[in-house]
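Think of the structure tokens as a kind of shorthand, similar to the way a musician reads notation: each symbol stands for something richer, in this case the local conformation of the backbone. In the example below we present two proteins back to back. Begin with the first one, reading the sequence and then the tokens, and try to describe in your own words what changes along the chain.
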Amino acid sequence: MKADRSVHAPWWYKTPWHAELAQVTIRMFIKGSVFAAVLMGGLSFSSAASPRTKEAMEPATRLQVFLDRSNFSPGKLDGRFGEFTVKALNLYRQSKGEQPKPAAPAKKDATPDVTGLDFSTATPVFITYTVTDADLATVGELGATVELKAKQKSLPYKDAAEAIAEKFHSDVDFLEELNPGKMKAIKAGDHLNVPNVEPFDLAAVKNLTPGSSTAVNDEEDTTEPNGAPPADKPDTVTLSVSVDVKSGMLQVQEGAHIIAAYPVTVGSAHTESPIGEWKVKGVAKMPNFRYDKEMLNHGKRSGDFQLLPPGPNNPVGVMWIQLNKKGIGLHGTDDPDSIGRSASHGCVRLANWDVARLATRVKGGVPVSIH
């Protein structure tokens, strides 16, 4: 026989919502009691993992430096055997005619097979870098909103830690592990431990002839940024670019031979990257960007937009490689942490240091396959 709660249950337990409220209250009381016990020392939990030492990070960093210097980028360097490090290693081995390995180690952060790799180019793994006035000159105020950013003359690095991290293709947290207590107030003359990669030179990009004078994502399909050759007259017939949206890797090939690879972020299910065969129209350096929510989210241009100035914190970074598809390009980013881990608005996004290297290889007419 079903119990009659109207007789046996308290007044606050007579209806389902009252019962739910009571259960939530009890759970909150229990959690509060546990929290109080922790404060009183009655319970203890293991403390957070201790910071890694430079020696502990060295094996993974050595592989990342080796791959980065070989133009098979693992993305941001972080001293871990992560997903893109393994993917870059597999593509590097394929470029040498070896059979591809499994996509990822069996165990998280497990050491992949590095047999046969010549690490002489990655020796030493870490070097000491002296911060310069030129580094600090790339840092400035950065507006908190799109509207405020549109009023600036440029979009610089927000602090010296971000500038140095990008210069050495690194994660800021990684540099903080290498330089405990030094990354919060960096000044010229400071000595920092950094990975031994070829430094990304922002000044070299800035000193190049500017690309389009208009916002790069607002070009008409008939326009050729930088006076690049028409799309049907390629300068280099054997060079091609291939973007695998599933693996999140971009490959540069000469004929059938892979010569470089970079991790990318591609479009989402809502704003997909355009699958198909395209061609490079041209390259714009330090571009402006037309920030139009309607265009970004739905592919339709509106009159409500903000024109964002150039700089490393521009949404398309320091380089825009225009495809013969309006509003679509291969470009940099203001957030290297997002590479491979969040969706773009249909374009193909790379870290600034990687897109700068890619831009030195491609010219108008080079085919780009997105598949």
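Once you have a description of the first chain, move to the second and do the same.
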Amino acid sequence: MAKDAAGMHGHRSRNEDGRLRDTRNDKHVGTLEKQYNRNFGVRSDMQVGTLLERTKLVSVNDLIKSGLGRGK
């Protein structure tokens, strides 16, 4: 797998049209908490899709930008 464009971190999976793949909704929240150093206050084995539904957000990007799970 070839490296991504300058400014991108590591190897990223892409769709056939070249866009970056979305995070799967069955990914565990604990994985995101470790990756982004956050604590969303839910069980780490909860699926991301469930957390997005509860927070009424559309994507993981929106979740990270929202500031949820950040310390004070």
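Compare your description with these statements about the second chain. The two ends are 40 Å apart (CA to CA).
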